[in-house]
Amino acid sequence: MKKLIFPVLLFALGIYSCTNRTQVTDRIGFIGISGPNLVTPDGNIFFIKGINLGNWLNPEGYMFGFERTNSVHLIDQAFREMTGPDFTNRFWKLFKDNYITREDIRYIKSTGMNTIRVPFHYKLFTEEDYMGLPSGDGFARIDSLVAWCRESELYIILDMHDAPGGQTGDNIDDSYGYPWLLVSKESQQLFVHIWKSIAERYSSEPVILGYDLLNEPIATYFSDEYDILNTQLEPLYKRAVAAIREVDKNHIVMLGGAQWNSNFKVFNDSKFDNKMMYTCHRYWSDTLQSSIKDFLDFRDSVNLPLYMGETGENTDEWIKAWTNLMNKNNIGWTYWPYKKMMSSRCMRTIPAPGNWEKIVEFTQAPRLTYQEIRTIRPDQNMVKEAMMQLIDNMKFENTRINESYIGAMGMNP
Predict the structure, then answer these.
(1) d(CA 138, CA 144)
(2) Which of 29, 44, 297, 300 has a CA-to-CA distance to 330 between 20 and 30 Å?
(3) Residue 340: exposed, middle, or buried by beta-carbon count in 10 A (0-12, 13-18, 19+)?
(4) Which tens digit of pLDDT belongs to each residue from 218-263?
């Protein structure tokens, strides 16, 4: 089994002190559950309004303008083919250092949002190579984010977007074309251990709202195997929740349905924990009210909170109507994404670097042999310059605010 980071190594990566853990503003506390509502410690209803920090700790190809090169390991491979391993390693560190900073968190708070969802790759919490850092640095990244969000009084939802073995079978989980997590005992054991390790570390941290255990498990492409794969989901959730509760009884656990967080018929024991809720995803629906009827029916049947963990990337008109629909039906939300290159369908746009289209061309071309790589590889210095310009462009002060999009969400640009 792949090893988790040992405590001594985690200390070297930046464990924050017990003193810091207790220095939490008195205006933020553990969120609880009362029927279909989330509630603050003083009993007031808490309605999630927030954004996803997509692409930061789980890069996706389309965020870079890539199509065929669409998962983390494929993006990493393409960069290494163009610039070599050492430069690529440095690039990824700078990428993580600059994509999300304290300034971004302060800005999100200033718009009126109260929550961020943080998609992450499981390898950040293991010794496996990921984005150039084989020793992992997940806790150091989350520790910094917790400190920033404590300062800004924003809640955090931790989302395992890429699980061991892969939970979807598509590019979004950086897997190998099948939801191996659902059939692999080793991957399941690692999945459970990582969540227990995360829960143990943050058990007393109220800035974290909850744990979104799996992003969009079991893609729709496996319809012939639904009966087999879908039946494995709830038992796996139960194992993870049981491990979390051994060390953390404070935080909410969030369960997504099968088939892109849309199929909740897979749940038979809908209230097996006293601090659990459900999370759904839906994009590009034109029917609005009828498009969430299945979610509302499920929510009403279990009498537990339901929140839209991902939605968005649409026109301002659609965003406004969809936000109103969710608000009206008591479905909290975190839109996707906060930042994106060359798109206004997000809160902040990252300008494209010069010559980026040549990098895109390389990722689209056949690269099945070393000869093909040598033949189509663009000038290395040009690629390095473009990649470093991307680092500069993603900095908070260099991104462009999309005021109409933010306003469509009912927030203040």
Answers:
(1) 10
(2) 29
(3) buried
(4) 999 998 898 899 999 999 999 999 999 999 999 999 999 999 999 9
User: Do residues 241 and 276 make contact, with C-beta atoms less than 8 angstroms apart?
Assistant: yes
Nearest to 116 by CA among 203, 168, 56: 56
Mean pLDDT computed over every residue of the chain: 93
Residue 153: CB atoms within 10 Å: 13
Query: Percentage of the chain surpassing pLDDT 70?
Result: 93
CB atoms within 10 A of CB 34: 12
What is the reported pLDDT for 288?
79
The pair of structure tokens assigned to 118 is 């943080």
**Average pLDDT, integer, range 91-106:** 98
φ/ψ bin of 218: left (φ > 0), alpha (ψ from -120 to 50), beta (otherwise): left
92 closest CA partner among 131, 55, 62, 142: 131
**pLDDT per position as a tens digit, 338-371:** 999 999 999 999 999 999 999 999 999 999 999 9
- The residue whose two tokens read 């205006």 is 27
pLDDT at residue 90 is higher than 70: yes
d(Cα 273, Cα 271) in Å, to the nearest integer? Answer: 5
Q: Which two tokens stand for residue 292?
A: 């969430």
Residue 191 phi/psi, 5° resolution? -55, -50
**Contact (CB, 8 A) for 153 and 29:** no
DSSP-derived letter for residue 78 is H
Complete edge-to-edge strand list for the sheet that includes strand 32-34: 32-34, 37-39, 45-46
Please state, in angstroms and as integers, the Cα–Cα distance from residue 73 to each residue in 6, 76, 79, 156, 305, following that order. Answer: 25, 5, 10, 26, 35
Are the CB atoms for 53 and 158 separated by under 8 Å? no
* CATH number among 3.20.20.80, 3.20.20.70, 2.140.10.10, 3.40.30.10, domain 7-32+49-408: 3.20.20.80
Question: Comparing 16 with 397, which gets the higher pLDDT?
Answer: 397
Closest CA to 208 of 152, 253, 251: 251
Say if residues 78 and 361 touch (Cβ distance below 8 Å). Answer: no
pLDDT computed for residue 26 by the predictor? 54
The residue type of 97 is D
